[in-house]
Amino acid sequence: MSKSKILVVGGTGYIGKRIVKASLAQGHPTFVLMRREIGYEVEKLQTLLSFKQQGAQLVEGSFSDHQSLVNAVKEVDVVICTMSGVQFRSHNILLQLKLVDAINEAGNIKRFLPSEFGMDPSRMEHRVEYGKETFEDKMIVRKAIEDAKIPYTYISANCLGGYFVGNLSQTNTLVPPKNRVSIYGDGNQKVVFMDEDDVATYTVKSVDDPRTLNKTLYLRPHENILTHNQLVEKWEKLTDKTLQKVHISAQDFLASMKDLDHAYKAGFERIYQIFYDGCLMNFEIGEHGEEASNLYSEVRYTRMDEYLQRYL
Where does the secretion signal sit in this chain (predicted)? Predict the structure, then answer.
């Protein structure tokens, strides 16, 4: 069976550039949207040109030009969008509604994967106070997709390693603490940690798979389901050093958010939901979802002790 042609929107971003790499590696004809608004963002341009050297095709388009999006979409079979929804960077989730309109008009797309790649928003929409607009906006996009009867797959990738593993899930750094580590509650809630390249690999594998059509693909590889305590233990074993552990109660953690601005409160509340409420593992996947490592057992995913080795 021939590989679907894939258009990546947001291809120069944190997850997007990995999606492009995975798409090329898996033999898909790969297209990357080059937005006309790129201006003087030379690093983005150089990234796009490097994709071209690797065999991707650059397709010019603009979210302010509906027809250019329609034309770009008509070039491919599948669209994967990775636009940012992080408050402390940029928050562009609803811009995807223009992409939904273009896909609907083009009428040729057999799968759309919108920008999610974190918690399942359908389970979070009414559970958070700060930063809830991210989940609400993702659900607005989902509704537009489903109302237009566009075939879809949603990706729930849980905790990305760059934000949650290298820093042992601390709130004030992206590198491991040297002497002291904060542990959330008793540190025993189950959490799912993912290597970003593996997220891309699983995502691309799903695009031609009828088992993931109109479903959510949850990334929950067994050996990456760890508690906070277990993650810290892995680092201590690698470094042969014991860290001082300070357990933070739920009450104290919530109190620490008081004087933060909205964007950081949103980030802290996600940590609360993950490490205190256990929101990533407190439900069964059910008939409307699939688990990636079960479907694609041939993928040799990165374990978190391997991920941590890059910080030594």
Answer: none
Q: What are the residue ranges in the chain where pLDDT is below 70?
A: 1, 85-91, 125-128
214-258 pLDDT, tens digit per residue, is 999 999 999 999 999 999 999 999 999 999 999 999 999 999 988
Which pLDDT belongs to residue 199? 98
Q: Pick the catalytic residue from 138, 205, 215, 265.
A: 138
The answer to whether 268 touches 261, Cβ cutoff 8 Å, is no
Phi, psi of 90 (to 5 degrees): -135, 155
Per-residue pLDDT of 248-262, as tens digits, reads: 999 999 999 888 888
The answer to whether the CB of 26 falls within 8 A of the CB of 200 is: no
pTM value?
Answer: 0.95
- Distance between CA 287 and CA 282 in Å, rounded? 16
pLDDT attached to residue 40: 85
Residues 6+ apart with CB under 8 A from 32: 7, 8, 11, 20, 48, 51, 56, 57, 58, 59
User: In the structure encoding, which two tokens stand for residue 254, read together?
Assistant: 């919530």
CA of 214: how far to CAs of 152, 155, 210, 262, in Å? 5, 11, 9, 33
Q: What is the DSSP string of 194-262?
A: E-HHHHHHHHHHTTT-GGGTTEEEE---GGGEEEHHHHHHHHHHHHT-PPEEEEE-HHHHHHHTTTS-H
Contact 76, 5 (CB under 8 A): yes
Burial class (CB in 10 A: 0-12, 13-18, 19+), 14: middle
- Residue 181: what pLDDT? 98
In one-letter notation, the amino acid at residue 257 is M
